[in-house]
Write a structure and sequence with these properties.
This protein is α+β, with helices and mostly antiparallel strands and 254 residues long. The chain folds into two domains: 40 residues; 207 residues, Umud Fragment, subunit A (Ribbon), CATH 2.10.109. Helices cover 19% and strands 31% of the residues. The protein contains three helices and 15 strands. The strands form three sheets. Strands 1, 2, 3, 4, 12, 13, 14 and 15 form an eight-stranded antiparallel β-sheet that branches. Strand 9 and strand 10 form a beta hairpin. It is globular, with a radius of gyration of 24 Å. It catalyses: Cleavage of hydrophobic, N-terminal signal or leader sequences from secreted and periplasmic proteins. One of its GO terms (biological process) is signal peptide processing. GO terms for molecular function: serine-type endopeptidase activity; signal peptidase activity. Keywords: Hydrolase, Protease.
Length: 254
């Protein structure tokens, strides 16, 4: 009987120890994930078509937090523990950046950095100018793929090249669209001017977004790690043969 009691006591002790170790491992894993998400990378899914053709709904990205340093928006829930940025680095023209929507910081946006503090930005007949100088823009053809353009007709595509050499493609869905010609915007100090690559279908600094404070920047979009067709669930593994966009996997973002 004594041996049975000892065995039972050891089993109970072992069970309690095993549960404690399991809980400890789970807690450590959660802390590690939180640190990685706060300091290094944050996953992000594309919510709209404003960055077509560069990014599509159904794309899943890694956003590097260290690229622009850390603000309170780098922390979970945007905890207001400090002001400004720590280890901050300035974004460059042409970066694709995730930021907090200035009127409602609970909402994430993703656009391209077009204007830096002090820049004068204007759209004229669909062409972008920075500080009075037209940005190089060349029509490179049309795209007739609804998955890329959201349109059931061919859409003109242009290659735009920033003064620093960064080049990317933009869509021109509607010639003479509402944002094709704008007033001149002067970017305030500590702010940035952001525009979507889908020029006629983007809510950005030309409209309700306005100038984006440096503090609101979350990180730089770096790589597409997964992509499925817009209406598909990434968890529907059995549908991947028809919904997975294999050509987009692990693409770096220009």
């Amino acid at each position: 009987m004594a041996e049975q009691s000892d065995s039972k006591a050891k089993a109970e002790k072992s069970g309690k120890g095993g549960l404690s170790e399991t809980v400890s491992v789970i807690v450590q894993a959660l802390i590690l994930a939180l640190v990685l998400r706060t300091v290094l990378f944050q996953p992000f899914s594309i919510p709209s078509g404003s960055m077509r053709p560069t990014l599509l709904e159904g794309d899943y990205l890694f956003v590097s937090k260290w690229s622009y340093g850390y603000s309170r928006y780098s922390l979970p829930l945007g905890l207001d523990l400090f002001e400004g940025r720590i280890l901050g680095s300035e974004p460059e023209r042409g970066d694709v950046a995730v930021f907090k929507f200035p009127p409602d910081p609970s909402v994430d946006y993703i656009k391209r950095v077009i204007g830096l503090p002090g820049d004068r930005i204007q759209m004229q007949n669909g062409s972008l100018s920075i500080n009075g100088e037209p940005v190089e823009r060349e029509k490179i053809g049309t795209i007739d793929n609804e998955d890329i353009t959201e349109m059931d007709r061919p859409v003109d595509v242009y290659r735009e090249t920033m003064p620093n050499g960064v080049a990317y493609e933009t869509l021109d869905i509607t010639p003479n669209g509402i944002y094709d010609s704008t007033r001149e915007f002067v970017v305030p100090e500590g702010h940035y001017f952001m525009i979507g690559d889908n020029r006629d279908n983007s809510n950005d600094s030309r409209g309700a977004v306005g100038f984006v404070p440096y503090e609101n920047l979350v990180g730089k979009a770096q790589i597409i790690f997964f992509s499925v067709a817009e209406s598909a669930s990434p968890l529907a593994v059995w549908r991947w043969p028809s919904t997975l966009r294999g050509s987009r996997l692990l693409n770096t973002i220009d």
